Amino acid sequence: MSVDTPTIPVRCVPQSRISELDFNNIEFGKIFADHMLVADYKNGAWQTPEIVPYGNMSLSPATSALHYGQAIFEGMKAYKNAEGDILLFRALDNFRRLNISADRMCIPELPEEIFMQGLEQLLRLDAAWVPPTPGCALYIRPFIFATDDFIGVRPSSNYRFVIFSCPVGAYYGQPLRVAIEPNYVRSAEGGAGYAKAAGNYGAALYPARKMQERGYHQLIWTDALEHKYIEESGTMNLMFVIDGKLVTPSVSTTILAGITRDSVLQIARDKGIPVEERKVSVDEIAQAHKAGKLQEAFGTGTAATIAQIATIHVNGEDLDLPAVEDRQISLSIAEELERIKTGQAPDPHNWIQKISL
Ligand code: COI
């Protein structure tokens, strides 16, 4: 999809802030590109979006999203190819997932043209912010929140949709130490675990902090009923290589259907690597490790991309995994994914949308 003429009203910044950015030293999520897209929902309809300078918004203290968490978001990335075009990765899948989250949170469905045309136009305007640096990308954050200034508990009648972006490097700087969570719960059947709802992240902070105090970067969520099956980890889906097979928990109503997860599984299948999407128990991981068959473990996510796991804490014991440089399956998939995203390899699944400048 491509829009040749700008259709969305734009108010440009008087002067770009891009000189504040050191492209060789980009911290995750701290410096934001010059512009943002804003569209409001009122009187039962999404209004014409606008592109405006990135900046603070004025809100009523009674804004309902701040009280009851009626808020959802997405995360996606854009890259630059050797010719300097912007390559947007699987944006339509993020758009679809945003509306799945919207449905779960009683937020009105967002029209595709507001998301896709708005995004294209925003990216053209802020093209200079897409880092050409290997391993870096422009992280794009679309979100919707309830804007009624009313503190009764009910779905809001008014909403705001915003897209802003920020150049990013790696989310995790080193292979991770993770621990199985035996008590706290992220999500249960019938809950909102599959939605990218703000509250899912807020409620996870306390257990994650407790795990960090014990010396682990992240925790691994287990099922709410028995704490027996592995679900996901912090900001990522989880994958294991057990005896040459790529094994991952199947998505369900309790697990976010990760787009990086799906991309990794597709690349694995394309490469002829056996893939199993199924229940994965904590015991299976411990036993595979004991038998020397747990060859690799990693998380997948837009921000995290492919984040290697060095150690998994299970039942009072730290299980150390083989050295990252020996992990042939995840390293080869990560390399292929990066080549597709940056236009260095063919894109057989039409994941890339090229935005010519
Ligand atoms: C992403 O990977 O894009 C996420 O949404 C994780 C995030 C909360 C940093």
TrEMBL record:
Root EC class: transferase
Pfam families: Aminotran_4
Annotated keywords: Amino-acid biosynthesis, Aminotransferase, Branched-chain amino acid biosynthesis, Pyridoxal phosphate, Transferase
InterPro entries: Aminotrans_IV (IPR001544), Aminotransferase-like (IPR036038), B_amino_transII (IPR005786), BCAT-like_C (IPR043132), BCAT-like_N (IPR043131), BCAT_family (IPR033939)
Gene3D superfamilies xrefs: 3.30.470.10, D-amino Acid Aminotransferase, subunit A, domain 2
Annotated catalysed reactions: L-valine + 2-oxoglutarate = 3-methyl-2-oxobutanoate + L-glutamate; L-leucine + 2-oxoglutarate = 4-methyl-2-oxopentanoate + L-glutamate; L-isoleucine + 2-oxoglutarate = (S)-3-methyl-2-oxopentanoate + L-glutamate
Molecular function GO labels: branched-chain-amino-acid transaminase activity
Assigned EC number: 2.6.1.42
PANTHER family cross-referenced by the UniProt entry: BRANCHED-CHAIN-AMINO-ACID AMINOTRANSFERASE, SUBGROUP IIII AMINOTRANSFERASE
Family statement: Belongs to the class-IV pyridoxal-phosphate-dependent aminotransferase family.
Annotated function: Acts on leucine, isoleucine and valine.
Protein name, entry field: branched-chain-amino-acid transaminase
Organism: Pontibacter aquaedesilientis
